[in-house]
């Protein structure tokens, strides 16, 4: 993560080129300002206009925003629509039936293209199959699938029949999957035999089988299995069904379920600072509106574009900019099964060249990794590929350091492509603070200005807005259409987390620290203010990892902190106290390894601590509070200069300097 200093020193400004401005959907700063002014002057009028212009409603809404149950806001509450209809039927009816909707490239390179007409037919068939299994409007369906056309089809099919999908990233373990199944009360799980990544086949179905034996999953009636590789699937009679058997003979038409705009479209579990991951609940209408608008304004999407968002469908980015946004705009998008480093570090660039991608959206961690690999393997450097099809680049998920920004700009974008550094969250549904590429001059490392209509601000701990130049809490002052509606099953947690009383109860608290440039008002994100880590753009709660560690019978106590990492942004450092004597040497090595695997088993490989350090105890105040600040200093390898005399046991600090190699 870039420090505040390095960001504030950044004063290079990149203006959009006149050619880009001339063709942009939002053309020039005046156009951006006009939209902001329209929203300022008549907030509901603004969103109402856009919702009428961008969504096809089955039944038009008469109310734009209902704040009577704040902070449980309702948008377009009396309108009815279907999001799958807006993504598929609408485009086929508009004459785009033969247009390529998805270009799928598999791990090993096979390419499959699907037109809008075919996609609609596949979604309708699968939707009919789900109905045949008794899945009804409002039922929860867990999707545990690799990146695939089937992943998009499964999500769209749920939306078509009003079922609420909850996609679980294929990298999560059986235990993590079980927690989500139980919390959501899912009736059905859609999975695959295996996923193919980096030339390897990784089992998926066994994780589902294991999850279902762990208890708490009594709501699940069926498991639908997409045969990806022909790997072992252990089909359980009466419970498990093959995808291909289910869709065979299904009708290609399926009347959509017309739902209220507020009908939940999906739950997506994400980490917070306390407790287990929370099910962020999104709506149908408001979510769709911002998915479309951000595609049009942030990504400047045009009928001729080939759009590629590299995010997995297991994350919100894969929802908004993989499954819904591009299709709702009638775009052509790339869906990629594999990893950026297989068969070599040129994979992304080669794919851009082959498919003539024009808009490319990825995470800073991927860029940083590819910079490094490109140095070691000049033959896979972006300069070796024809990337002239690119016209716009984007980043998401974590702060991008100016060095990586410049490399992306020059080596990938050939110096001609604007970069949109988009700040947003699972909870916000879509971009909140981002440049509009034909309007906003960009500054490396800054996500610049709020999306038109988004009232972002920085406040102090009492909720008072700070002057520009002062760092504080990032908040959003007014509700917006694509916002989180609640935490599934825990409305109180929603209220406390996002609308805390300390800030007055009316400001959405994002959980990030931010500062605005004193002159331009541009926002720079400084990272989380809570105990949430951002590891390679993945959100992980320190508490979650601590609980995973403590669930190992050997562990008495654990504390987890982040430390800056060149490529991943943040690395995970775990301090562990065992129930037995502090291990050293070979034993420590072995135990550290076991514990890392234990965390992978409890959560998933993405949560494996990078470092484990063993102590006889943890540094605590006399009242027994773990001093995380000290642990963070130790993790960074810095000397502790503050007074530690209030510590119960200062000698412990020396032990905790030692990293198990
Ligand atoms: C961080 C991902 C800096 C931030 C869409 C946020 C960013 C968290 C940016 C949400 C960005 C996301 N610059 N930081 N452009 N985008 N973040 O829910 O800390 O997986 O709160 O959503 O990622 O992560 P999430």
What's the arrangement of secondary structure elements?
Layout: H1 4-8, H2 18-23, H3 29-41, H4 43-54, E1 65-66, E2 74-75, E3 80-81, H5 83-87, H6 89-96, E4 100-105, E5 111-115, H7 116-132, E6 140-144, H8 149-161, E7 164-167, H9 174-184, E8 188-192, E9 194-197, E10 200-203, H10 205-213, E11 222-226, E12 240-242, H11 243-247, E13 259-260, E14 266-270, E15 278-282, H12 285-297, E16 306-309, H13 316-328, E17 332-336, H14 347-355, E18 359-362, H15 364-376, E19 392-396, H16 402-412, E20 419-422, E21 456-459, E22 472-476, E23 486-487, H17 491-498, E24 508-516, E25 523-528, E26 532-535, E27 538-541, H18 542-550, E28 555-565, E29 569-578, H19 585-602, E30 611-614, H20 628-635, H21 652-655
Parallel strand pairs: 4-17, 6-7, 6-8, 8-11, 11-12, 16-17, 16-18, 18-19, 19-20, 29-30
Antiparallel strand pairs: 1-2, 3-13, 4-5, 9-10, 14-15, 15-23, 21-22, 22-24, 24-25, 26-27, 28-29
Helix pairs in contact: 3-4, 7-8, 9-10, 12-13, 15-16
